[in-house]
Amino acid sequence: MSVRPALLVIVSFALAFAVPPALDSNPALTPSPTIPHLVPPKGNDPSQEPQFYVFSWQEFFALNWPAKMTSSGQPERGVPDPDGVFGEVKPGIPRVWETWKADYELFPVHQSGTLTPTPWSSWEVEGGDPCATGTGLRTLPFIAKGESVVLGGVNQAMGGPLVDQKRYYVRYEIRVNQSEYEKIVKNNWFLRKNVNNYPNPPNLLDASTQDTYGAIELKAAWRRVDDSEKSRYYTTQAVLVDPKTGKCGTKPVTMGLVGLHIAHKTGGFKAWVWSTFEQVDNVSKGVGLKCPHSCSFYDGKYNDKSLYTWGFSPSTAYKPKNPDELEEDGHATPVQVIRLNPIKEMIKTLNDQVHHLQGVKGTVWENYELVAGQWQDIENQPDPIPISNDTTAQDLYPTLVGFPTTDAIANTSMETFYQGRKGELTPEPARNPMGIPAFGTSCLHCHYAAAQYDFSWMLADQAWPSSPGSQGTTKSDLKAKKGKH
Amino acid sequence: MLKPSFKNDILPLFRPMDIQCMRGLEPPRGPVFLAKYEYMSKKENGDFVNASAVLAALKKREEGEEGPPRMPYGGPYWSDANIELFAAWIAAGCPK
Lengths: 485, 96
Description:
The complex is a heterodimer of chains A (485) and B (96). Chain A is of the alpha+beta class and 485 residues long. Chain A has one domain. Chain A has helices spanning 49-63, 103-106, 178-186, 305-310, 345-355, 443-448, 457-462, 475-484, and strands at residues 67-69, 75-80, 101-102, 138-140, 171-176, 216-224, 235-240, 253-266, 269-279, 312-313, 336-337, 368-374. Chain A is globular and about 50 Å long. Residues 1-24, 142-153 and 473-485 of chain A have low confidence and may be disordered. With 96 residues, chain B is mainly alpha-helical. Chain B is built from five helices and two strands, in the order H-H-H-E-E-H-H. Chain B has a two-stranded antiparallel sheet with strand order 1-2. The longest helix of chain B is centred in the last third of the chain and has 12 residues, at 80-91. The two termini of chain B are 15 Å apart. The model of chain B has no long low-confidence stretch (mean pLDDT 89). The A-B interface holds A 145-147, 152, 154-155, 158, 160, 192, 197-198, 319-323, 325, 390-393, 395, 434-439, 449-450, 452-453, 457, 460-461, 466-477 and B 12-21, 23-26, 29, 31, 33, 35-36, 39, 58, 63, 69, 72-82.
């Protein structure tokens, strides 16, 4: 079955901004189809920090480069079109990252544990495309870490679902590059029985070198956009799975990209280099402040205590929900969200420079911004990284050499409920409403809890069976399934 | 199955996410050490207190019931067959 993402985007938007202080003479900031292999070590030199953010934008450029199409009209997985233009978005031509394998291709949906993921270049999906579109459209199940696809997944990673101002649930997808995909397939790690648990040796993926690519893992967040909004978004056509019923939609809808995580294991950065981007209309900069083009996740008015304290409201929105507890998609209660921790000035300056670059300015990509990045200082870093004992409450994160102590980094479209705590209560940047300090409120801290699986929650929780406790058919299971279909 | 064991039958039913979440929970909800046999098989006054508490959380059916949330938090919930297996493990004296 073909699963070729198709794209429909109208892009013709140019805004006149004052040009920020010039850095656009930096050749590294020119949009390029080449994913950077290595990032210079930061060491203890704060002046090196901007290089990481440039690295993040280089990744964004390359991953969002138009994919190379074959003569048969299908994209070539992971290969950029050398004649492509970054700012041009054409129907039917996906971006490079959209051609990477999705999690449901790496961990096929099945009951028996006998299916093997298809070769990297294949567009066949072992076990079948969840919605069997057969039309080359992507399926956007409501997925979350810990659950493979379609029926079960309803939540953000370790949190509840996010509902936008139009009352629709935000959808997520996870994709991996060829290196990560083939490493997991080669080691049969897509089957849980082959994955090492603590205290056995961790399951390590490869890191990029000067000449080869190591593991890169992406997570994207999408929201449904209407005709009045879509010129501000990179969009795709997708068949949606109803999060409440598990049924596939009958016709595709236009989805706008609202968030993109990029995690890259590269060089000496054994804890990966983390970059996260958002669409600029996602949230307000503060309580009571409106977005210039209306916020996707804030009405500009809400001002309750939870917004000041946690950055979201209602205060119970962080709780994971099972399908029975969900409201109807399109009629759900919106979650009000603000950005609790401002984007660093250094990053904002870089974003302004990027937005004025030739090839970016006037395109849809002008509406995306780097929100944050994280990495470890690799000087004196022990290798392998020590892993916390999972039979105790041990959390080694605060003791790890070179790991960032600033612990309040979140993408508001994907980690809405992990922005830290502010407001009238005692500010605690690492505090999360789940009451699990070991997850912290940042990429590195949370993913360190999955260090046994090389910082990949996807590998930790989607290896088959993804939810072993829920396996096994019983009378009540059958009854529940009948109720859904 | 004659006699379920913790290592072969019970521990594999928990996801890494379950183990990490529960062991990280702040008091009074936690911590709960799902991967630690000595904790799960702890006996007080003739009752396997920690295993029984986990079983009660796994068995909860109705939202709004008093006590801690149903496990796993947010689902997907355990099948009846596996809940019965867990109960059988406790009834057998929590074999290692």
